[in-house]
Amino acid sequence: MLDSLTLLIEKVFLFTNFNLFSTISTDKNANYFDWTSFQRGDLLEVPRTLFIHFGIYLGDDKVAHLMPDILPVFTNDERQIQEVVTNKRLLLGVLSKTASIRIDTVEDFAYGSSIIVNHMDNILNTQQLPNEEVARRAEKLVGATPYSLLWNNCEHFVTYCRYGQPVSLQTDKFCNVLKMIIQDQRSVMLTAILGIISILYLGLAPSTTLPTILIPFTLWMAS
Q1: Residue 65 bears catalytic tag
Q2: pTM here?
Q3: Choosing a second label site near 205 at 20 to 30 A (CA), which of 6, 39, 60, 115?
Q4: 53 is catalytic
Q5: Per residue in 75-96, pLDDT tens?
Q6: How many angstroms separate the Cα of 77 from the Cα of each of 10, 66, 80, 198?
Q7: Which of 65, 119, 156, 161 is the catalytic position?
Q8: How far out from the chain centre does Cα 182 lie?
C-alpha cells in the first residue's frame, strides 16, 4: 500500500514537472563549491528534482538539515534511522508531517547534486548572523520536529539559523502560483466540468455533488 502511494506521488510530481519551488537552478550567478572550502555556519543549497534542499555546515564534513522522514514513526533504532533518507521515506514523511533536524555528511546531504554556498545572502535583504552563532543555533535544534511543506520546511530552518527569522522563498513562490490559479476564472470552469464528469461517471452522491458545488463556488468567491 505504501509502495503504491509513494509511486503515485512520484509519478504525479514528475508528470507535472513540479519545479514551482526552484529558486536557484536558473541563476547563472550562483556559485558552486568544493566542500573543502566550506566554513562553519555556511548555508548550503542543493538542487533536487522537485525542490531545493537546504542545510547548515557545521564543520568536519557535517551538515545539519531538516528532513521529512516516516521511519521514526515505526522504529527507535537510531542506526537504522541515521541511514540516508530515501525518496520513499521522505515523501511519506511529508504526508505524515514528521521530520527531524539531523546531522549527515556533506556527501549524504548533497545526494549526488552540486552544492551552492551562501547564495541566499544575495537574495534576502537581511544581515546574516555571525557564522559561529549560525552553527550553534543549528546544533541546538537537532532532533525531532513537526513538518509542514509550506510553513516549517528545511528552508525555514536554515533562514532562522542564519538570519534570525524563518522564511521560505519556495513557499512564497508556491503561494503566488496558487493565488494566480485561484484568480483565474478558467480554473472555476475547469473544476466545475471535472465535477460534472465525476457525477456522470460515479452517479449522484454527496461525495461527488458537494465538491462539484462547493469547490467552484469557493474559487469563484476567492477570485
Answers
A1: yes
A2: 0.69
A3: 6
A4: yes
A5: 888 888 788 887 788 888 888 8
A6: 27, 19, 5, 45
A7: 65
A8: 22
